[in-house]
Every structure is written in C-alpha cells, then in structure tokens.
C-alpha cells in the first residue's frame, strides 16, 4: 500500500478520503488536467507524467506557483506566523486585513495559508468586493504542514498551474490527456446551496455546461473525462450517457462530528470507448 499524501491546505469538499477510489476510475494517459484543482489531493496521489492544474481562484494558483518555485523561502515566512501569539482572534483579523490590503503575491500566499489553518473550518470565501471574509476558527494548536508543502513542491515540478475557468481548461486538452473534474457540488436541495466557495458560485447552468463539455470532449476529441459530484437524481440525469459509479463518503461540513451525514458520491466517466447505445 503506497502512502497517501495529504494536501497542505484544509479544503471544503477535499478528495483525500476518495483518492483510492478515484485513482481506480481514472483512465491512463500522459497528462492529467484538473479544471478545479482545489487542494490538489488527486494530483498528489496519482502518477501521471505531467499535470495541468487550474482554478479560478488567483490566490490559490499564486500560492502553488510560489511553493513550486521557492519552497524554502515560503516555509520560513509562513512558519513564522504559526506561533501561539498568532493563534488569537485579533491577530487573525489583523492578518486578514493585511491580506485584503496588499497585492504582493508572496505576502498574500503566506497570509493565505495562515488564514486557511486558523480560520473557521478551513473555508475559503470572499465578499463581493473580493475581500477574504472567513471568521477566526478558535483551534487549540493549528498545524503547520511543512512536510506536506515540501512534498507538494517536489511533485509540482511536473505541473503547470493556471488561473483559468473550466471551459478554458478543456480547450487546452490534447491527445493522451485525461481530465478530472471536481466542480463545486450540486446542492442536495434548493435550500442547501453550498456552492458559494468562490465568487458568484457555480450555477445549475454551469453543472449542465460542464456535463455537455465533458461528453463532447470524450466523443469528439477522444479525451476521457471523469467527474465527481453528489449522487442525486439531478446529477444522474445530467451525466446520462456516462459510465456511472457510486461511493459513500462522510462529508466534513459541520464541526460537530455527530451531525455529519453520509451522502453518496457519483463518479461519471465519459470515454470515447463508451457509447450510450451500449447500455
């Protein structure tokens, strides 16, 4: 059993628990493209020659590029904030304010990790003006992920990081590529719109466009696409014509362990070898 590698960021909807299952479903190829890289658990736990890792959050992509290029300088600067005096609500609010005031890429990347580990539930959320607005998390001793950062940096030598949307990421796909999509999940109910992680959110129209783009990419370009999402009637309808698999998983959305609900996840594989008429 190979050692599983954890992402250095806490991330809502992170794929660490699912990577074994996902890795079994992912087709072979030379390069893996992830239009929604998030914390990168799939990247960290698969073995492709190359990676194209995309996200629309510029802070995330900036952070990954800095860790790829200058890991030691980054670790030194970020570690300095992981001291008891900084694990304090006012200190956190001060850093958050500094983050929102500066455009310096290195400073923002250092503050980003600090807020990710000291902020509430590791959420990443911005207000309409683009200001980071996650409240303080009150954790006893936030963990500084030094080894995880080093591993990420080492593996990132095989990766290219781009701040682009999913449609642009699809447009860059070529022969021998494989695409894995982990979009913001479809809401379990119309009230549970948990899709506001980044900016204006990911609408049901986006879910449908992504499904159509995936089907087209597999059938026309011959590039396989795997998508994960909640296993609900809506997604089964959206991904008609894909090869569907389901796994059950615990979602860590609430802080109170007792109220975590199990929601199955669907994995939809669009592959040019697979046609709807085979069903």
UniProtKB/TrEMBL annotation:
<feature type="binding site">
    <location>
        <position position="11"/>
    </location>
    <ligand>
        <name>S-adenosyl-L-methionine</name>
    </ligand>
</feature>
<dbReference type="GO" id="GO:0009007">
    <property type="term" value="F:site-specific DNA-methyltransferase (adenine-specific) activity"/>
</dbReference>
<feature type="binding site">
    <location>
        <position position="15"/>
    </location>
    <ligand>
        <name>S-adenosyl-L-methionine</name>
    </ligand>
</feature>
<dbReference type="GO" id="GO:0006298">
    <property type="term" value="P:mismatch repair"/>
</dbReference>
<keyword id="KW-0238">DNA-binding</keyword>
<dbReference type="GO" id="GO:0006260">
    <property type="term" value="P:DNA replication"/>
</dbReference>
<keyword id="KW-0489">Methyltransferase</keyword>
<dbReference type="GO" id="GO:0009307">
    <property type="term" value="P:DNA restriction-modification system"/>
</dbReference>
<keyword id="KW-0808">Transferase</keyword>
<dbReference type="GO" id="GO:1904047">
    <property type="term" value="F:S-adenosyl-L-methionine binding"/>
</dbReference>
<dbReference type="InterPro" id="IPR002052">
    <property type="entry name" value="DNA_methylase_N6_adenine_CS"/>
</dbReference>
<dbReference type="InterPro" id="IPR012327">
    <property type="entry name" value="MeTrfase_D12"/>
</dbReference>
<dbReference type="InterPro" id="IPR029063">
    <property type="entry name" value="SAM-dependent_MTases_sf"/>
</dbReference>
<feature type="binding site">
    <location>
        <position position="182"/>
    </location>
    <ligand>
        <name>S-adenosyl-L-methionine</name>
    </ligand>
</feature>
<protein>
    <recommendedName>
        <fullName>Site-specific DNA-methyltransferase (adenine-specific)</fullName>
        <ecNumber>2.1.1.72</ecNumber>
    </recommendedName>
</protein>
<keyword id="KW-0235">DNA replication</keyword>
<dbReference type="GO" id="GO:0043565">
    <property type="term" value="F:sequence-specific DNA binding"/>
</dbReference>
<dbReference type="InterPro" id="IPR023095">
    <property type="entry name" value="Ade_MeTrfase_dom_2"/>
</dbReference>
<feature type="binding site">
    <location>
        <position position="55"/>
    </location>
    <ligand>
        <name>S-adenosyl-L-methionine</name>
    </ligand>
</feature>
<keyword id="KW-0949">S-adenosyl-L-methionine</keyword>
<dbReference type="GO" id="GO:0032259">
    <property type="term" value="P:methylation"/>
</dbReference>
<dbReference type="Pfam" id="PF02086">
    <property type="entry name" value="MethyltransfD12"/>
</dbReference>
<dbReference type="InterPro" id="IPR012263">
    <property type="entry name" value="M_m6A_EcoRV"/>
</dbReference>
<comment type="similarity">
    <text>Belongs to the N(4)/N(6)-methyltransferase family.</text>
</comment>
């Amino acid at each position: 059993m190979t050692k599983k590698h954890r992402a250095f960021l806490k991330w809502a909807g992170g794929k660490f628990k699912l990577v074994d299952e996902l890795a079994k479903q992912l087709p072979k190829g030379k390069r893996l493209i992830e239009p929604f890289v998030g914390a990168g658990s799939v990247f960290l736990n698969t073995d492709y020659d190359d990676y194209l890792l995309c996200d629309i959050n510029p802070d995330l992509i900036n952070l990954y590029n800095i860790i790829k290029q200058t890991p030691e300088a980054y670790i030194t600067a970020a570690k300095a904030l992981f001291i008891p005096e900084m694990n304090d609500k006012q200190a956190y609010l001060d850093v958050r304010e500094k983050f929102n005031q500066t455009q310096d890429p290195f400073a923002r990347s250092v503050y980003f990790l600090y807020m990710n580990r000291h902020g509430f539930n590791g959420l990443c959320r911005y207000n309409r003006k683009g200001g980071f607005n996650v409240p303080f998390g009150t954790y006893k001793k936030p963990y500084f992920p030094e080894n995880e950062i080093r591993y990420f940096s080492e593996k990132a030598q095989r990766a290219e990081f781009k701040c682009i949307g999913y449609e642009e990421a699809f447009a860059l796909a070529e022969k021998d590529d494989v695409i894995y999509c982990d979009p913001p999940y479809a809401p379990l109910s119309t009230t549970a719109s948990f899709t506001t992680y980044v900016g204006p959110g990911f609408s049901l129209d986006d879910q449908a466009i992504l499904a159509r783009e995936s089907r087209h990419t597999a059938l026309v370009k011959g590039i396989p696409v795997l998508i994960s999402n909640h296993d609900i009637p809506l997604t089964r309808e959206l991904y008609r014509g894909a090869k569907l698999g389901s796994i059950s998983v615990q979602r860590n959305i609430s802080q109170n362990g007792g109220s975590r609900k199990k929601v199955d996840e669907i994995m939809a594989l669009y592959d040019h070898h697979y046609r709807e008429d085979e069903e």
